[in-house]
Amino acid sequence: MLDIPVDHQSTVPPYEQLRLGIVARVRSGELTAGTKIPTVRALAVQLGLAPNTVARAYRELEQDGVLETRGRLGSFIASSGDPTRDAAGRAATEYVAAVRRLGLDDEAALSYVRAALGETP
């Protein structure tokens, strides 16, 4: 059973809340590699969501390498564990390379990151 709260009043779409909730549980170690997760229909009923909402979250998690589907056996937490940190590291490296190509200095690069994070100067 996955007990992931979904706030229907939030500006964050329910599928994204679900996706983030599963990623958070993987990072915390609550969901470990090989853990079977509920079927799309079962989780939709449990959380009061449309099956398509849960299916979208599962698809995105599978694309991110967090989940793996084994046909009729169901969906499981991928053996690679939490690939999101690797993806974030690659994105950061690509960002730095792009900033360097543009000729910006480190302070300018950091100011763009701070702005993207919503930090105010």
From TrEMBL:
- Domain of life (superkingdom): Bacteria
User: HTH gntR-type domain spans which residues?
Assistant: 12-80
One GO MF term on file is: DNA-binding transcription factor activity
Keywords for the protein's UniProt record, in alphabetical order = DNA-binding, Transcription, Transcription regulation
> Which InterPro entries does its entry note?
Tscrpt_reg_HTH_GntR, WH-like_DNA-bd_sf, WH_DNA-bd_sf
What is the protein's name according to its record? HTH-type transcriptional repressor YtrA
Native organism: Nocardia cerradoensis
Q: Which lineage is the organism of this entry classified under, starting from the top rank?
A: Bacteria, Bacillati, Actinomycetota, Actinomycetes, Mycobacteriales
